[in-house]
Amino acid sequence: MAEMWINMGPQHPMTHGLWNLRIKVDGEVITDAMPEIGYLHRGMEKIFENKTYVQIGPLTDRLCYGSSFTWNHLYCMTVEKLMGLEIPERAKWIRVMAIELQRIASHLMWLAAYAADLGLLTGFVWAMRDREIFLDLLQALSGSRLTYNYARIGGVAADLPPDFERDCLRAVDYFERKLKEHENLYNGSKIFKMRTVGIGILKREEAINLGVTGPTLRGSNAKIDIRKDQPYEVYDEIDFEVACHTDCDCWARYIVRMTEMKESCKIIRQTLQKMPKGPVRVKTPMLAPSGDAIGVVEDPRGEGMMYLIGDGTDRPYRLKVRSPLFVTLSAAKPMLLGYKVADVVAIMGSIDVCMGETDR
Amino acid sequence: MDLWGISYAISDILMHIVYWIFSGLLGLLPDPLGGFFDGIGLWFVSPGVIAFITMLLEALIVIIVALLNVIILIWVERKVLARIMDSRGPFYVGPLGFFQNIADGAKLFVKQIIIPKKADKFGYQIAPIIFVGSSLLILAAIPLSADFAVKDATGATIPGGILFAFAVFAIAPFSILVAGWSENNKYTLIGGMRSAAQMMSYEIPMLLTVASVFLLVGSFSFGDVVNAQQNIWFGIPLFLGLILFIACMIAEVERIPFDLPEAEAELVEGWTTEYCGMRFGFFMFTEYLRGYAGCGIATALFLGGWIGPDFLPGEIWFLIKAYIVFVVFVFIRGALPRIRTDQILDLGWKRLLPLAVLNLLIAATFKILGWF
Amino acid sequence: MPEQTCERRREKSSLTGLVIKPLWTTFVQTVRNSFGGRPNTVLYPHEKLVLPPRYRGKHALSFTRCIGCGQCVDICPNECMWMKKIEDPVLGKIERPGVDYSRCLFCGLCVEICPTDALLMTDQYELSSTDRQGLRYEPEALRNDDYPVREPKDAILVPGLDVTKCKGHEECVKACPVKCITMVEVEKTGKRIPTIDLSVCTHCGKCVEACPEKALTMTKKLIVMFERPMPVFNLDNCTGCGACVRACPADVIYLLEMPGTGKKSADGKVGKDKKRAVFALEKCIGCGRCAKACRFGALEMVPESKYREAQAAPKPKGKPKKGGKKE
Fold first, then answer.
1. Min Cα separation B312/chain A (Å)
2. In this model, does residue A1 exceed pLDDT 60?
3. Between chains, do B186 and A194 touch, taking CB under 8 Å as contact?
4. Which domain range does residue A337 map to?
5. Is residue A133 part of a domain?
6. Averaged pLDDT in 10-residue chunks for chain B of 372 residues
7. Can you tell me the mean pLDDT for A324-341?
8. Which structural domain range is residue C302 located in?
9. Are A154 and C224 in contact (CB under 8 A)?
10. Higher confidence at residue B263 or residue A241?
11. How close is the nearest chain B Cα to the Cα of C5, in Å?
């Protein structure tokens, strides 16, 4: 068969989001790849210019709906930097706890989707079942399951509800036991290894040159994590390890994410122990001074950044969002070259695509 | 339960009713030719016609039994798969959700039929017919017990029953190729070719395993194979053969872990993408039919067929064993991811084929030692 | 890959090595689901989940507590609320908000900004409708006067001043233990009214008891954690029309006469004295309706933190031009 271009998407069960992957195939082997995005572009950055700082809060949840608290928190952190606002200690610890709960929920959703792609329907349902526990915790905390609107400029919306520490510890203990079961299903399965080991190799230099961040980079033998390199909130007071793996393939990214989930459990335990008492919020100011501020966080998918320019009014002049998946998707080509069409699913799944933040 | 006996009784009654209609009712009319309707009525009750109707009824009963079993099988699969996945399966329609499949089938009937413009009409329409027809034909060869079987005048089952079943099994890849090609879609073409390659390459270890059973029995008839297992089921000395046969059967029927041709995540529905409504229903249904046929053959060859203690009739034992094999299929589906096509073919040719030869060697050893 | 090679076993069991471990895991789990407890599924709609108290579902509006300030309408990010004028038999002519659920984000900002805890969110999420109008809930459809407030906002007690009753006795200034009350002259009226510094006030209530005219009453003011603006008054533009008095939902603005400002006609008769607006800002909730109602440019909303300097700054005569901010 001559070389032909195949469209995987935009209507495709694999793509987890709305984007088009054009691959050039020679028989079964891929010779070129071109991702096409923009189907979910909603003009969020333009919308942000017309809303007050308080009104933008709920809308940042919709940037990446898979890990919405991360973006909510990033936005509040950036505005607080611009306004020069100091938030209470307890608010910082609660924020870190919510971030790590969200990280586990987001990685579980990735695991579910990855299993479903590879045909392991049982893994899909089990991961979703365990994700429900964390969604229930976050629902008790904020009132909603997916788009929390829990972080405010000046702290968090409300304090922990009664009995939350007890429930959270029980959930984390239960989850660490369940994680072993999941590992038996994946690590013990030779078929899973056949589908992921040696597939989708992205070398370390290439990853760094292309600007890839997050578990994709850490799976390529580069120990780079914003929580350790540029700590924010109270991450410098918490003891945890950065997950990293030397093989640069899909298996390595899978191991990195599983390890990150375990580390998140450790972090949650530490926050529950070390949290001081006190208020959780200061009054949100109306106006922001002229100037600019940058906020950087470790999103479950990579390095998320917001650049905010204020002009003295109650609306921002410009709010730029740097999404990690925008860069990683652009770097899809080196990961796909030379592999077979059946591997596209495994490789693209291991990047954990969420189009909300890529297209904004 | 004698298949011929039941069919004969039913067809006897039917033909006598027809005779009564002709002679009794219509014979009351004024009759210029004298005995016209009477003669027609008598022809209907002649032994040849009754035998012919009996054969038709036999086929009908076999099909009905098979369809019933398939519906029960689909229900069993959905319930067991749900329990593996920590949920419940159908629960609303009928007791324990038993009629859910009927509801799904009815839904498929009312869907709009869309035929792609550039599809090859003849191939598009004939592929499901060949697929379903050949799969139903397998069931004619598989007896549910010593009596419930398609027999000839002397009362013997088909002499080459196993061979016939496998030969008909192998017609399906042809219809899949036709289906995949005639839909005018790149993906279905890829799916169809993958499927045909996979089915073809797994026929060989399967037939080698069957050959090992043949070595021990000396006959290809189902009745003889099962009778030879009176002392010990063949699954116990030929355990490797049983495992191999189950693995090859899963590949033949295209279930997970071997279902890349119809992988939902990649090719949507693989080679059945462009089929709508009941045609798609036929494909899905036939997959379960072939699964049932495969389980039936595995039971007959390795697990003793209809042999069991006397408190239940032989047919029930056969069905119970076939269902247990099917539940093993469902567990394997629940627990394993999909294997990539080239890895499937790798597995089939490089690993299962040597093991099948090893199995043949073991069977030959047993035969030489005179234990069978 | 190194891991694969070290796991290679004998040819015979490589087939089972593929299958046995995951099969065992699933088998154990299946047995646990079937016999050791219930599966994880909730058979909706026969069974429903229990929702936490903070769940953000459909709104519940208390007509009696709502003062019709409209801050919920202003803060909604998606512009899904509107104020509706209602004639209630008990409450009279009131304005209450309605919600359009085809646009609502269920973010809860409207609940957070409500200064009287009148708008709450229930745990109802089954809001489907067969047409678009069915999702537009009027205030009467949201009305639920008895819905319990699960997490009421923190409240402080504020001595609220009724300016018309105040005669300037200055008893309150003497009674205050922390000296947070100062008498401020109201320009051109010749009256002095007390102004309370809320950051120092201890809510003891002695000023309320001390007032002989009963002009001060302790009112509960809920703390809203968003900074709200306060009105800056420009006397030169005020015509005493009273639009701001009618618009204010929180009873903050009063009209006082300015003696000696009556129009003198040719035949020596003196008309009525002009009036001016006077503000008792302790009760102000920052809704901004007074500034919207004033047609003469006498009021401008300025954030709380910038209020002092804006009050002291020289104010322009005439209505300020529109424009500047992006709309």
1. 36
2. no
3. no
4. 4-353
5. yes
6. 80 83 74 71 80 86 87 90 85 85 88 84 88 87 78 71 87 86 79 83 90 86 85 84 90 82 59 80 88 90 84 86 92 85 84 90 87 71
7. 88
8. 226-262+272-319
9. no
10. A241
11. 16
Contacts of residue C83, defined as CB under 8 A and 6 or more positions apart, other chains included, come to: C68, C70, C73, C95, C96, C97
pLDDT at C62: 92
Residue-wise pLDDT for A255-305, tens only, equals 999 999 999 999 999 999 999 999 999 988 888 899 999 999 999 999 999
Confidence class for position C9, pLDDT limits 50, 70, 90 = very low
Contact call for residues A39 and A359 (beta carbons, < 8 A):
yes
In a mutational test of the A interface, the residue from B80, B81, B83, B85 whose CB has the highest number of chain A CBs within 10 Å is B85
Does the model's ipTM exceed the 0.90 cut? no
C121 touches chain A (CB under 8 A): yes
**Average pLDDT in chain C:** 82
Q: Is residue B86 part of a domain?
A: no
A58 to C22: CB separation less than 8 angstroms, yes or no: no
For chain A, how many structural domains are there in total? 1
Output the pLDDT for position B26: 73
Could you tell me the residue range of the domain that residue B203 belongs to? 111-369
CATH number for the domain harbouring residue A279: 1.10.645.10
Asked whether residue C302 is domain-assigned, the answer is yes
CA nearest to A88, candidates A345, A351, A280: A280
List, as ranges, residues 124-153 from C with C-beta within 8 Å of A.
151
The whole-number pLDDT of residue C145 equals: 87
Interface test with A, best of B87, B181, B266 (most A CBs within 10 A): B266
The length of chain C is 327
C231 and C253 in a common domain: yes
Query: In Å, how far is C305's CA from the nearest CA of chain B?
Result: 56
**Does a structural domain hold residue A48?**
yes
| B91 falls within a domain | no
Contact C232, C288 (CB under 8 A): no
Residue C283 falls within a domain, yes or no?
Answer: yes
Q: CB-based contacts of A349: which residues, under 8 Å, 6+ apart?
A: A14, A16, A113, A114, A117, A118, A250
Q: Do C21 and A283 touch (CB under 8 A)?
A: no
**Mean predicted confidence (pLDDT) in A130-154:** 91
Does residue C190 form part of some domain? yes
CATH (domain of C164): 3.30.70.3270
Per-residue confidence band for C169, with pLDDT thresholds at 50, 70 and 90: confident
Query: What's residue B264's pLDDT?
Result: 53
Query: Does C32 contact A at CB distance below 8 Å?
Result: no
* Nearest CB to B86; choose among A115, A120, A126: A126
Q: How many domains does chain B have?
A: 1
Cβ contacts of B338 on chain A, cutoff 8 Å:
118-120, 191, 195
Nearest to B241 by CA among B203, B199, B213, B219: B213
Comparing CA positions, the residue from C184, C192, C191, C183 lying closest to residue C273 is: C191
Which residues have C-beta within 8 Å of that of residue B57, sequence separation ≥ 6? B7, B10, B11
User: pTM of this prediction?
Assistant: 0.88
CB C290 within 8 A of CB C231: yes
Domains in chain C: how many in total? 3
In a domain, A360, yes or no: no
My answer on whether C66 and C138 are in the same domain is yes
| Cβ–Cβ under 8 Å, residues B55 and B10 | no
Low-confidence winner among A59-73, C12-26, C51-65, C252-266 (lowest mean pLDDT): C12-26
Contact residues, chain B, for A28 at CB < 8 Å: 342
For residue B171, being part of any structural domain is answered with yes
Mutate to test the interface with B, among C8, C13, C15, C25 (most CBs of B within 10 A): C15
Q: Is omega for the bond preceding C53 within 30 degrees of 0, making it cis?
A: no
* Contacts with A341 from chain B: Cβ below 8 Å: 190, 266
pLDDT above 80: residue A107: yes
> Cβ contacts of residue A12 below 8 Å, gap of 6+?
B268
C206 is a domain residue:
yes
Q: For the CA atoms of A170, A175, A181, A184, what is the dihedral angle to 10 degrees?
A: -140
Lowest mean pLDDT among A292-306, B246-260, C2-16, C259-273: C2-16
